[in-house]
Write a structure and sequence with these properties.
The protein is α/β, with parallel strands linked by helices and about 230 residues long. The chain has 7 helices and 9 strands. Helix 3 links the parallel strand 6 and strand 7 (about 130-135).
Amino acid sequence: MIDFHTHILPKIDDGSQKIGESMEMMRQEAAQKVEMVVATPHFYADQDSVHRFLKRREDSVSWLRQSLAGGSAPSLRFGAEVYYFPGIGSAELIRQLCMEETSVLLLELPFCQWTKEMFREIKTLIKRQQLTIVLAHIERYYAYQKDLTIWNEIFALPLYAQMNAGSFLHRQTRRLAFRLLEQMGTVVLGSDCHNTNSRPPNMQKGWEMIRKKFGEEKLSEIENLEKRLCGT
């Protein structure tokens, strides 16, 4: 499968802080039979410019790929986890933060009650900029939605949901994760890994929990969606 959401690039955000840690995370991904890792470092428009971010990401990707050369690590694609900001719908440079060779943008929304403005901005990204939106770790927003009206309107748009594998592993989050997966039909799966200890790659355990609850067919649906979004 594909790990669709990771912070595996070294020294670019709050994820891996050194090349050795990144390499160990890639080894863990390989041991879990992950075939492709999508590197999605955080992008915050109020803290960085697209140009500076892309330069830092290029350097980090190059560093990691050189260190992994000749090994048997999963293939590496890169994009960004872009944090929502007012005006994002008309920010044309955002397209440069899509996953390489695609129009797929991993979008992180605020941890608050969602608003009409957010709905309009996401709709503009889809309709005017013709981006394919994947909303990051949707299960983490749910508790903030005291009114589900905007939640329902956003998920009625032609977009996709990403869920974290770890949400299926813990008793306090598993029930909601299963319910949201049932409601969404299918999602893309990511580890949202940040390091080798407190937030390591955990895709295999997540797959196993989904297989146990929903069967092999659900995993095939997830895999097919991920491959389609990645253009593979």
